[in-house]
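Example (one chain per record):
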Amino acid sequence: MNKITVYERADFEGLSREFTCDVPDLHELDFGNCIASLKVVGQPWIAYTQPKYEGDPHVFEEGEYAAVERPNSFSALRLVHHDLLDPQITLYEQPHLQGACKVVSEETNLAYGYFNDRVASHVVQRGVWLLYQHPNRGGWHCLAWPGERVDDYGAQLHFQARLSHLRPVI
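Predicted structure:
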């Protein structure tokens, strides 16, 4: 069973709630902006800083998080329903899936190769991906979903061809 248990204080203390399905607005359940620790069983969950799955996404894979990175900031929760096995994303050097391309199937720090800060578009074949602006999972980040096609990073993601790190959600 896939579930997330959220707690109002660090170290799994205080009030708690358990969810097994998406929650578009935690405020409606009197639990908005108060999560400080959590436990995930099964598939990953995404916590958003705004209701209706808006704002910054934060991915929590199976495990226990005694102190979340941004406590008291989550307003929505979404279960990742997608198949996460055998992830694959194709990166392109130019907008509209043009130019040199690179197929990626595992966590990759682009700073160590020729594609660092050169990606301008992508298409996700399989899996859910986290894309980071800076090396080592740093800077601004966003999610990329199966079947997603982003034709222009500058117009759609505000990355301005500055993708430096990516990893599949597992």
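Caption: The first strand starts at residue 3 and ends at 9.
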